[in-house]
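The data layer described in this paper is built around a simple, fixed record for each protein. Such a record has a labelled line for the sequence and another for the C-alpha cells. For reference, a complete record is included directly beneath this paragraph.
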Amino acid sequence: MTPGMTNIEFELPPELEARVPAELRGDGRDDVRLLVTRNRGEEIVHAHFRQLPSFLAPGDLVVLNTTATLPSALTAIREDGDAIALHVSTPLPGDLVVVEPRKVAVHEGERLTLPGEAGVTLLTPYRDSQRLWVARFHGVASLREYLMRFGRPIRYSYVDGDYSIDRYQTVYASEAGSAEMPSAGRPFTRQLLACLRRSGVRLAKLVLHAGVASLEHHERPYDEWFEVPARTAEEVRKAKARGNRVVAVGTTVVRALESSVDRNGEVIASRGWTDLVITPERGVRVVDALLTGFHEPKATHLAMLEAIAGRTHVEKAYDEALRGGYLWHEFGDLHLIL
C-alpha cells in the first residue's frame, strides 16, 4: 500500500453531498447530525451534534485547530488569454508557494497573470504530484494580504453557491494560513464550547495550516506548518495521566499532535513543518478519539481513521453512514470515533 493510502472503497451517492452550509438548511451551524461509533464499530449511535457533550466525560481533552481559512482561489490568465482557476495551497521556504492550476495541463516556466498587476511562474511539479506545482509570485508583497484582497474561498463543484469567507471559518479561528477550512470544527458554536466547559470537558488549541484537499490516489500527504503550544502539550500529558481521552477535532489535529511526540511517547511543545503520514502500520501514540467529517472513497484520511479505530470499525461506520443518509464534505455531518 502506498504510504498514507487505503483501499476502503464505496460509492458516494450525489444526494449525500452537502451542497449548502448547515445554517442555510437548518437552525444553525450545529444543526448537523452526529454518528457516534465505538467498540470496534459494534456500538453505533445516531445523534445530533448538539448532543456532543453527552458523549464526553469530565476531564476529557478536546483539541481544536485555530487556523483561519484564507480566500485561496484566484483567477489566472494564461499567455493565450484563457482564464483558469488557481488554488493557492501552501507557502514554502524561500518565497516559494505550492499551487494547483485546476484541471488544466501546464508546463514548467509558464507564467500566469493575476489580478492587481501580479503574476505567478510555475517552476516545477511538487514532489510526485501531477496537479500541484511549486511556484513563485511576482508583484505580491504579502501573500496573505493579497489573497484577502483578490482571492475567494476555494469551492468545489458539489457546493451550490458562492459563499463569503466567513462561511469557511470556525468560530474559534484566529491565525490565517489554511487554504481550506479544517471542517470538523465548523459545527461548533460558542454556546456549545461553553457547554463543554461547564460539563468538565477541557479545551486546548494548536495550529496546523491545511493545504488544498482532494489528493489524487497516488499522492502522499504533503508538508504542512504546525505549532503545538507548551500549554496544549501540558494539557495532553495531564489528560493521559488522569486516564482521560484526548479527542482530536479533525485530522489536522491528529497530524499536529502525532508530530509533536518525544522519544518517550509524550507530547511536547514544537513547531515547524510536518511530513508525517499516519497509516494503520504506523498507528497513533497520542490521540484516543476523533471528531471528523466523512471522507471520500480511497481518501488519504481513511488510512488515518484506520490507524485510530481499525479497519473493521471504519467499514462498519461508513456502511451505517451511507445507509443513514449522512452528508459528506465541509458542510456535512460529523463522525465521532470513540
User: Anything to note?
Assistant: Residues 73-150 form a domain with the Thrombin, subunit H fold (CATH 2.40.10). Confidence is low (pLDDT under 50) at residues 1-5. The two ends are 26 Å apart (CA to CA).
